[in-house]
Amino acid sequence: MLRLVCPHCGERSVVEFRYGEIPTVPEEMTDPAARDLDRAFMRTNTEGVVTERWFHEAGCRRWMTVRRDSRTDHVLETVSRSSGRPSDRPA
Amino acid sequence: MNEFVERRVKLRFSEPRRSYDVVIVGGGGHGLATAYYLATRHGITNVAVLERGYIGAGNSGRNTTVIRANYGVPATVRFYQHSLELYQRLEAETDRSIMHQEKGLLWLAHTEMGLRAERARARINTACGSETLFVEPDEIKRICPQLDLAGAGRYPILGASYHPHGATARHDRVVWAYAEGAMDRGVDVVQRLAVNGIRTAGDRVVGVATDQGPIEAPVVLSAVGGHVTSLCSTAGVRLPIRTHPLQAFVTNHYQGTFEAIVASTELLFYASQTARGEMLIGAEIDRQPSYSYRSSFDFLASCSGRALALLPFMANLRILRQWTGVCDMSPDYTPVMGETGVEGLLVTTGWGTWGFKAIPAGGEAMAELIATGQTPAMIAPFSIDRFASDRTLADRGSSGTH
């Protein structure tokens, strides 16, 4: 199970958090309607390092930005959205 | 035929040739069923199925083997009902045992909202030709005596929809039945050959790139589970898919008989008994998109806790093993099948947590599309165009777990 280290609350189980995706639309896509459609429905679904947000719903109720490897669930970096404070250790 | 002692499965794997009429990427149920129906219904046998590991190693071997058609929108009810009927005839058609067993499926409601959902499910299923009835608690107790109708005081069972033709089958047997049937008719099934990309020339597909060099084909079908987004991106195709892990576990042998399949949307679990007597429990997907196959203790603790609220006899059982599969989820919980915008490149994906039950109908439809060039009416609503044209199929019937 994925465990996240909240910069404010420390290490917690993933069940305390809500996942927040950062949609990514390919830069080479220029038509505004195509970009809207892509942003609404299409997914890059990266196999590798992804940047995403997590909301500590059952804790401090603050957002953080996490870099995670989607192949292994290994967390590389965690930073608070509001204060910019990093976690003491990634995970 | 004794389902445990029958003739041996004879699988003859092939070395890949340099070109085929059709290349199918992914040797799971969907890929092999497509090859089988191409050969048996359309006489197309210059076909290769390329599998990175061994056949059935992905989600075909990791799912919880439930066959049901009690979905929530007409297009999906009809599709899964057709698949359920193909499964009923599959042993006779292929002359191979798949250990198909009709069990009946109870979908429980614990709240007024849940009751409305299950009544609606029964009505829409009946209207679309799939048998589902609404049943009261006394009938539920008769169908599944192990259920605690009080739900441990917190999740009282107020009613349920009952899907009498809900069934299970042995997943490996299904994969082998299709593989053997396809091989017997000349289809090449290649194991341990990774496909690294789709090769295109202009707007059309010309083949695939593999670890052992390119293989040419004017038609390529991606029947990949888990890595479909990466594969299709090599042809510039964007998919509405996010890949999430889903965990499941089995207990040791339960000496009683547990005949039905029991599901609860509110408690996010479902249970059935395997042919070996184990209790099989599955749950909802993990929240983060991931390709990791790691299982967790947190999942075992929370899921078994919820299961015990309804099935207290399981407190005396022990967990034997757990595993994880990865599910390709579409935004509307409905598959994505058909053309991709790149000529000759087809996909069958978005199989989320409902891929196993769709293997026969999905394979049959993709084979028809490949053979005739026409999208069969049954899968037309599942085209990728539905997102651009605002005809998505948000399906409450599939969003609850399996």
Describe the structure in your own words.
The complex is a heterodimer of chains A (91) and B (402). Chain A is built from 1 helix and 6 strands. By secondary structure, chain A is mainly beta. In chain A, the strands form 2 sheets. A 4-stranded antiparallel sheet of chain A has the order 3-4-5-6, with no helix packed on it. With 402 residues, chain B is α+β, with helices and mostly antiparallel strands. Chain B folds into 2 domains: 22-64 and 171-240 and 332-399, 3-Layer(bba) Sandwich (FAD/NAD(P)-binding domain); 105-164 and 242-329, D-Amino Acid Oxidase, Chain A, domain 2. Chain B contains 9 helices and 20 strands. Chain B has helices at 29-42, 74-94, 112-127, 137-143, 171-184, 228-233, 297-310, 359-372, 396-399, and strands spanning 22-25, 47-50, 66-67, 101-102, 105-109, 133-135, 159-163, 167-168, 188-190, 195-201, 204-210, 213-216, 219-222, 242-253, 261-264, 269-273, 278-285, 319-329, 336-339, 345-349. Chain B has an 8-stranded mixed sheet with strand order 6-7-5-15-16-17-14-18, with helices on both faces. Chain B has a 6-stranded mixed sheet with strand order 9-2-1-13-20-19. In chain B, strand 10 and strand 11 (204-210) form a beta hairpin. In chain B, helix 1 (29-42) runs parallel beside helix 5 (171-184) and helix 1 packs across helix 8. The radius of gyration of chain B is 21 Å and the shape is globular. The chains are: A mainly beta (91), B alpha+beta (402). Chain A binds chain B through residues 1-2, 13-15, 17-19, 21, 26, 37-38, 40-45, 47, 50, 52, 68, 70-73, and chain B through 227, 229-230, 238-243, 286-292, 294, 296-299, 302, 331, 387-388.
